[in-house]
Amino acid sequence: MAIRNIPLKALVVNRANDRHGELENETAAIAWLFNEREIHMRNLAKDIVAEGEIYEYPLVWPDQAKFVVFDGNRRVTCLKLLDDPRRAPTTELQKFFREQRALWKGPFPSAISCQVETDRERIDDILFRRHTGTQKGVGQSTWDDRMTSTFVNRTGKGNGPSVADEIEKRLAEAGLLPSRRKLPRSTLNRLLSSEPFRQRVGISMKGGRFHFTLDEKKSLAALAKIARDLTERDLVLNDVWDIAGKQAYLDKLQSDGMLPDPAKPASKDAATRSGSQPAKVKPTAKASPTLRTTLIPQKEFGLVWPGRLQRHHQIWEELQFHLDVHRHPNAISVLLRVLIELALDNYIQSSGVAVQDGDKLAGRLEKAGLHLKAAGKIDAKQLEVLKKFKQGDKLVSADTLNRYVHSPNFAPSPEHLMSMWDSLADVIVELLKA
């Protein structure tokens, strides 16, 4: 550990803070803090001004000439906005920070003392152990379950079995484990920190146990390649720090023909064979039917959310966790239309689908569907739904979506909305995966 005095302008508010997952940039991260924690942020800013200090050292990691903040983002944000109120996300907040800055006693600090850690694994260990009360926003805000989940999915840390330990054991059994250097297990855990990434190399940790989901021989070859890249330092922690880095590396393996074929599932023996016991689950009372209350069912869809899909992710979470389809059908109908548009644009831009400037939503969706079908990502039945999307007499159609937004007399019903989602869900997920 080193305590260093670092210029305020060299500190970067972390766009991938575990409070929110990956966002586009520092500006988006600052905006999120005020969108979600405005009262806490105001209280903290007032406290910093009153005391003239922040008490705890921010935890930072050097990145070229800058230092990314891993703990203390709220404190650093307040100092940055006190230093330059124009960076506050609203005019009201800009006025607030100008007023607070006028109350600062003595010279305003151009640099602050920070705890600098160059080992990212150590940073995650520190974060994992820090849990304090909020003190109405003055102290650290405790992570909720979703923030903790984001941390686990980013780092691979948690109380369950280590995917790196399981992989190392199977590579050793197959005689494929590199012997020159020790396998960097923390980096391997980070690369394969969530199920969508594990599925690409043909493995899973669902149910608290390791098992192969695709051809075992091909999967072992892919894992051996990853292990070699790690031990030979061709792949390092910084390469897989965020979602984009993980995807880029796995995409390279795929283009090189190193990943198992998704169309070739593992044999039953390989799929059930495991060296670790599944997590113990307490017996529960007899299950009863659960009434669906949100447009998007609350289950896992295998999506990862890079920073460029920040707004897509926010809309998805509103539709999956926050808006009750029986209470907010009008708001949900508009957000569904927006999500389809954004997901479609994402796929067109990422996959290079040829569209014309005059193409309407239904036409662009059909072209994207043909591209998905040719890539083997949707079947003929799903494509047929998209082809019928142009027909105004269909429930699942562009005309229905337009009426949801523009018609004063066409009121969406929860049943129709859920039916539309269920018909388009697989396609929307594929559009977002691009």
Structural class computed from helices and strand pairing: alpha/beta
Shape: flat
Biggest β-sheet: strands ordered side by side in the sheet:
1-5-3-4-2
Helix percent reads: 40-55%
Poorly predicted runs are 131-135
Number of strands: 7
Radius of gyration: 24 Å
Please, how many helices?
17
Oligomeric state as shown: single chain
Mean pLDDT: 87
Largest sheet: 5 strands, mixed
Overview features:
434 residues, alpha/beta, two-stranded antiparallel ribbon, 50% helix, 7% strand, flat
Concise overview:
The chain is an alpha/beta fold and 434 residues long.
Describe this structure in words.
The chain is built from 17 helices and 7 strands. The chain has 434 residues and is of the alpha/beta class.
Element layout with pairings:
Elements lengths: L1 E6 L3 E2 L13 H26 L7 E5 L2 E6 L1 H11 L7 H12 L8 E6 L3 H10 L15 H11 L7 H11 L11 H7 L3 H6 L2 E2 L6 E2 L3 H16 L11 H13 L12 H5 L37 H13 L6 H23 L9 H14 L5 H8 L10 H9 L7 H20 L1
Parallel strand pairs: 2-4, 3-5
Antiparallel strand pairs: 1-5, 3-4, 6-7
Helix pairs in contact: 1-2, 1-3, 2-3, 6-7, 12-13, 13-14, 13-16, 13-17, 14-15
